[in-house]
Write a structure and sequence with these properties.
Elements: E1 3-13, E2 16-27, E3 30-35, H1 42-49, E4 57-62, E5 65-66, H2 67-73, E6 78-81, H3 93-103, H4 109-117, H5 133-145, E7 151-155, H6 163-178, E8 182-186, E9 199-204, E10 207-212, H7 216-223
Parallel strand pairs: 3-8, 3-9, 6-7, 7-8
Antiparallel strand pairs: 1-2, 1-4, 4-5, 9-10
Helix pairs in contact: 3-4
Amino acid sequence: MKTIRLENLSRVYGRSFALHRINTEFKSGELSVLLGHNGAGKTTLMNILATVDRPTSGKITYDKIPFAKFAKKHRNEIGWVSHDALLYNDLSGRENLVFFATMYGVDPKVVDEWLKRVDLEKASNDRVASYSRGMRQRISIARAMIQNPSIVLLDEPLTGLDPQSRKNMLKIFNKLKKEGKILIMITHDVSIGEEYFDRVLMLKAGKIVYDGKSTLTDIVTEFT
């Protein structure tokens, strides 16, 4: 089982702690949900896991390997869905995926598989600039998964999706869990059923105030 371990992880901006002595683990085959108000530290933690930010102190390891060292050699092992879709608007959905597949040295045949999984086959040749918010979200998820990463970081991946697309995305995440991937998701959608996630971390003022398994609604009610 692959594990990301955080030990006394802190991130300071000026004199303020965005994260304060975080201790936790993320394991393969699990979807962990991060909850918390704006400014709680969720995005800072996700940025550190995506290696676009660095902790001020503490340790982060991937199977006992320093995470920064692991990411430098194996950056394709990290799939990241951020607020920015990280797509080229003037290219079609298909062209975007072909570009990223080529960049990662992946067989372009994978593109058709992911277009089907995110239900964008019919719109695959349309420019991304013409896509709705939900369509952009779906093609962004396909873009993040094209290289078959072992770590999947999801920052509000369900935003803008209609109920059917949302349900399809959650099913995809369940399948990725069964494939042994580490999934970490920020969300404000507390209606997600318990069958779709394995644990919840509630952050408040840069600290973990809850780490366990309960309904998202109950956790938000208790800690806000």
